Amino acid sequence: MTTGERARYGGLLALSVVLAVFELFFLPLRLDGRVLPDVGAIEFPITALLAAVTLPWLVGRAAKIKAKPSFAGGPLYVWLATLLVFLVAGPGGDVILIDDWRTLLLMAAGAFPATIKVGGVLAKSAAGGDSERGGH
After folding, report:
1. Distance between CA 60 and CA 41 in Å, rounded?
2. 20 to 30 A from 129, CA-CA: which of 8, 34, 40, 94?
3. What are the sequence ranges of the domains in the chain?
4. Which domain of life is it from (predicted)?
């Protein structure tokens, strides 16, 4: 792996951390007229949608650097680790994760599509391994 590829992969991992923190901080947004339009103060976990779009993209970009499932899953693993750190110990002892359905939605919306993408990388590497060995 070249130095440029390592730098790009490090950037993907750093972006995973930044996105996890961003998604956690903006998870409690409400449609109450302060930041988002006023629609009766309903909870609106837009960051779960953001996670569902960005994490598979990050995994796909990592897979283009090296098509190995453990390597391609790096952004997902870093994102989950960041969530775990904030779950166990927030900054200054504060609790960042909220105890309701939005936290579960964020984790599921981020992890599920990214895991499917890692599975696609695994399938491609397995298919490539069979053709190299003269598999059927």
Report:
1. 36
2. 8
3. 3-132
4. Bacteria
Taking the mean position of all CA atoms in its chain, how far away is CA 71? 14
C-alpha 38: how far from chain center: 29
Cα–Cα dist 121/104, whole Å: 25
Q: What does residue 41 show for φ and ψ, rounded to 5 degrees?
A: 60, 35
Q: Encode the chain (136 residues) as per-residue pLDDT tens digits.
A: 899 999 999 999 999 999 999 998 888 777 766 666 667 767 778 889 999 999 999 999 999 999 899 999 999 999 999 988 887 776 666 666 667 788 889 999 999 999 999 999 999 888 876 544 444 4
Q: Distance between CA atoms of 11 and 133, rounded to whole angstroms?
A: 34
Would you state the structure tokens that stand for residue 120, as one six-digit string? 């696609």
